[in-house]
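PT: before anyone asks, these are the final sequences, not the draft ones from last week. 568 residues across everything. Please model them as a single complex and drop the result in this thread when it's through.
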Amino acid sequence: MSGARVAAAIALRDLKGVAKARSQLYSSVLTPLLFLVFLGNGVSHGLEPAALPAGNFTAYLVAGTVVMTSVFSSTFSSASYYRDRDTGFLRLLLSSPHSPRTVMLGKSLAAMIIGALQAAVVLGVAAPFVDFGWQYGVGGGIGLALLTVVLLNLMLTGLAQALATRVQSMQGFHLVMNLALFPLLFFSGAFFPVEGLPAWMKVLAYVNPLTYAVDGLQLATYATGSGGFIGYSVDFAVLGVLGAAVYALGLSRVPKLTYSGE
Amino acid sequence: MSSAIEARDVRRSYGERAALDGFTLDVPTGSVFGVLGPNGSGKSTFVALVAGAERPPGGRLTILGEVPHPRLRARVGTVFQENASDPLMSPREYLLFAATLFGMGGAATRRRAEELLERFGLASRAKDPISTLSGGMRRRLEAARALLHRPELLLLDEPTTGVDPEERRLLWETVRAERGGATVLLATNDLHEADEVCDLVAFVEAGRVVASGAPAELKRDLRRQTVRVELTEADPGIVERIAAEAGPGRVTALDGELVVMTDDAAALVPRLFAAAGPAIRGLRIEDASLEDAYFQYIQRRAEAVR
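LR: through. Structure below.
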């Protein structure tokens, strides 16, 4: 039995677990959509979005909402590590003849797929109702958006995994993830353009990896040109390098087969 | 006879605390071997070491004739002290998932899973979520999962904790029938269970094996028997005469009879009859239990340490 097949089996089992937890599935898709509808429409009609590169705040907000969905979804999916540890299932995985890295690879693969699928659902549901530029065409735009989402999820899953194997409690894990990721979301261009920000906030935005994911998604869907955006060469370079590095960090520490009370 | 597990002076610590401190043990191939000890004695640490096929930080360990390495885990089945199942899965899904982990698949594996569900009395609940099964059913499922890949070594860490006597009987009957020639290492603090099912046992205390052998040998080595004497009348003079024959501190009056502890009942009984014959209505000799042996050895060890 190859490690890849076992990793795929573990990923499939995690995916089935999410499909069975219907409330988590629905809320993780519905929350960002409601966010998009209420905040997007509210701001679009209540304010004059002159600062937006291509007008229409709802369309602008889609990229940020997709990134937000990925952030929450990969966080929740990675929390399955804690569930498996607490139910004892992790012991079964670790007593199998496969390396703990194969086990963690399977679990992170599931988290990445779930994050990417949920982001794709948000994008797919929003697309017919908002005014996207699709400057690379619909097919090209969707392809670039998905690539951006996959790279983003690689990084987020790696981060979640690195934390999960180091932070003892699930509450602590969520606290650290929220503390790290919420501010990053605000300074990423997810809810307002980075261009109009004061200089110190712009600096924070440019050292923020989520900024490059939002930029990639804006370019793929919303933008009608490249003016005012960072550009794909930088976006993919940052997300690719960081994604690989953080994912490697996530796999650098693996759990061991231990017993409670010993 | 070859050894399925050979441990020599194995050491393992958690921080400052030594969980295994010179643990030495031979588990003969094909035997049912019990590792008995109080909580925290190191027996579960030893099971975890073997289940994980890990090299110990100190000492030497061989499992199924090999130095520990991860692939050896394919030849070992483990029932952990706590359940290792996903409560959202069904028993059938759980077994088939475990089969994938252990390199099995296809129609033969599905048949094997169905066969084990049937044997362990879980066939009627095969599709239900594991969260809805009773505690005993979950332990049976764990045993079925551990036997699924036909391991050569079966590790059972307190497999019947919290299980009622009927469930316990069913579980052991099925494990015995299904294990084939596999060696069984049972870690438990249930001495009656160990006495009933084990060919050999080892008493573990503070990370070391303090005694090992067949339960009968360990009990025989104690030379301890209990003689229960029923008297025709409660005459203090007779009790004194019996106490004088048995030796100081060996006679207890309990539930209308005298309980006499002795190392040699065969020699004591004629002397009791000579001293108080007419007053003795009945007499019963009981052999020492594994529990007596356990406490004797653990106490000896505690005294030696002091």
